[in-house]
Amino acid sequence: MFHELAENFYRTHGGVDYLGGSGAHQLAINREKLWHGLSLKPGDISKINGLKRPTEAVLKEYSIKIKNYMNK
Predict the structure, then answer these.
(1) What pLDDT, in 10s, does the model give residues 26-44?
(2) Is residue 11 part of a domain?
């Protein structure tokens, strides 16, 4: 997933073509190589500071909003 995000970033924000030695695809591969082996759990979020579980009232409110949206 991050490979595709990197490719699209290079293409849309950098104006880089997809193919070629300095294309978006290769730049995404190069970026991946910088991180390879540095994490025991690639893509895993180990800790989020300050995140609290929503209250039951908030969960109920969101549930109602989602149901109303889905019924449109």
Answers:
(1) 998 888 888 766 666 655 6
(2) yes
20 lies in some domain: yes
Taking the C-alpha atoms of residue 2 and residue 44, their distance in angstroms, rounded to an integer, is: 13
Assigned domain for 26 exists: yes
Number of domains in the chain: 1
Question: b/e string for 25-49 if b means 16 or more Cβ within 10 A?
Answer: bbbbeeeeeeeeeeeeeeeeeeeee
pTM: predicted TM-score of the whole model, two decimal places: 0.48
- What is the pLDDT, as a whole number, of residue 33? 83
The reply to whether 22 falls in a domain is yes
